[in-house]
């Protein structure tokens, strides 16, 4: 109690000398700021300002505010000579009073010219709420404009991205088509260059007993197959069948035991004679032989064989042979059979 009284006394003494210090105009005023503010958390508020004070630094007291609901709010917010009170929605309408606490030294100064340590302002709640709403709406409109701009930009970038993706898709498809067409060109070349698949060669000797021709125009069938790479010579038919288009070489050798018989024979492709040969035996020499041979360009699956052309001749079985081989295959193309038989 005594300390409190001492403080009060000190204050009175100080007030006598420095009373022009705390308030610039000798009296307090409350004004309502005409701007609405938004804090960092997005809350909107109106500001009541109580002043003007001349303190450069923060005053030695906190401001007491009496709000319409009769509550007392202690506020320490101070800026540019004013204590401020923030009113946020819903704003309470009525009488707001700011008051310098009675135990403050400064209160004594202001008491000198009547009760100047407090000031009031009537806040119209409808007007205040409208101000807040208008400010919020203005901010929303601004946000809306920004969002609209961003939306336009996004739509434009989406459109250009869509175009880009479509173009990319088109180009990828074109590349794939061109690649697959190149592959279809390259694949047969790989097969062509794979000589493993193109070993076509055969050699057969000896006539089959049952087919040894005694009458003419009979296909000679050889029984003793020594080589048959590619398996194109068939002993039961006597045919060599081409596995793919290309250029082939063939040779046939045979003759007759009987010196009085001319052994005529031919190399035939699909009914067409490609080489003809015969033994002409003027003397009395047994077992004369002759050879017929040829190089032909053949298609796929064509038959090549030896045909006996003379009648009633016993052909010389041991001296009979039939050979052939592929010189080189045709270059593959889009209409060639693929894959080629091995
Ligand atoms: C507002 O309240 C203060 C303090 O209670 C009082 O002095 C003042 O007369 C009131 N003003 C109005 C307009 O009601
Ligand atoms: C982006 O563009 C595509 C193609 O025009 C459309 O289908 C899609 O809806 C758009 N997306 C947006 C978010 O606008
Ligand atoms: C080469 O041809 C042989 C016989 O047709 C086949 O087995 C082999 O896979 C081929 N190699 C390549 C690399 O195509
Ligand atoms: C084929 O004929 C020869 C000579 O005439 C004979 O020795 C051989 O036994 C015959 N072979 C067959 C399977 O008839
Ligand atoms: C040989 O030809 C006969 C008669 O056409 C046929 O039945 C047989 O399958 C052929 N053999 C081969 C290995 O192609
Ligand atoms: C392609 O091959 C086929 C069959 O071998 C042949 O008939 C045709 O003429 C060839 N085409 C070209 C352009 O070489």
TrEMBL record:
Xref: PROSITE patterns: C1Q (PS50871), IG_LIKE (PS50835)
Coiled coil residues, start to end: 116-150
Domain C1q: 195-333
Location of the protein in the cell: Secreted
Keywords for the protein's UniProt record, in alphabetical order: Coiled coil, Secreted, Signal
InterPro entries to which the protein is assigned, alphabetical: C1q_dom, Collagen/C1q_domain, Ig-like_dom, Tumour_necrosis_fac-like_dom
Any GO CC annotation of this UniProt entry: extracellular matrix
Signal peptide: 1-26
Main location: secreted
Domain Ig-like: 22-100
Pfam family, any one: C1q
Name of this protein: Uncharacterized protein
């Amino acid at each position: 109690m005594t300390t409190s009284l001492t403080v009060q006394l000190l204050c009175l003494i100080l007030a006598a000398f420095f009373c022009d210090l705390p308030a610039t105009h000798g009296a307090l005023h409350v004004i309502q700021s005409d701007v609405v503010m938004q804090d960092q958390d997005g809350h909107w508020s109106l500001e009541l300002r109580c002043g003007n004070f001349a303190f450069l630094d923060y005053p030695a007291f906190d401001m007491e505010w009496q709000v319409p609901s009769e509550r007392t709010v202690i506020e320490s917010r101070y800026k540019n000579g004013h204590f401020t009170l923030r009113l946020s929605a819903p704003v309470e309408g009525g009488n707001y009073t700011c008051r310098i606490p009675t135990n403050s030294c400064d209160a004594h100064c202001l008491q000198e010219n009547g009760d100047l340590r407090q000031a009031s302002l009537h806040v119209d709640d409808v007007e205040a709420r409208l101000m807040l709403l208008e400010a919020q709406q203005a901010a929303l409109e601004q946000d809306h404009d920004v969002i609209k701009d961003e939306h336009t930009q996004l739509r434009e970038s989406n459109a250009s991205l869509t175009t880009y993706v479509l173009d990319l898709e088109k180009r990828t498809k074109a590349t794939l088509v061109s690649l697959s067409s190149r592959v279809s060109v390259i694949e047969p070349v790989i097969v062509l260059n794979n000589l493993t698949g193109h070993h076509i060669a055969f050699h057969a000797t000896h006539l089959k007993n049952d087919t040894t021709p005694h009458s003419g125009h009979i296909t000679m069938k050889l029984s003793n197959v020594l080589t048959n790479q590619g398996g194109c010579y068939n002993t039961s038919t006597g045919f060599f069948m081409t596995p793919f288009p290309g250029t082939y070489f063939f040779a046939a050798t045979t003759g007759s035991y009987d010196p009085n018989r001319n052994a005529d024979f031919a190399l035939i492709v699909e009914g067409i004679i490609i080489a003809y040969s015969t033994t002409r035996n003027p003397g009395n020499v047994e077992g004369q032989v002759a050879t017929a041979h040829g190089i032909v360009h053949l298609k796929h699956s064509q038959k090549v064989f030896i045909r006996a052309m003379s009648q009633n001749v016993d052909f010389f079985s041991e001296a009979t042979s039939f050979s052939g081989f592929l010189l080189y295959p045709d270059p593959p193309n889009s209409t060639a059979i693929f894959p080629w038989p091995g």
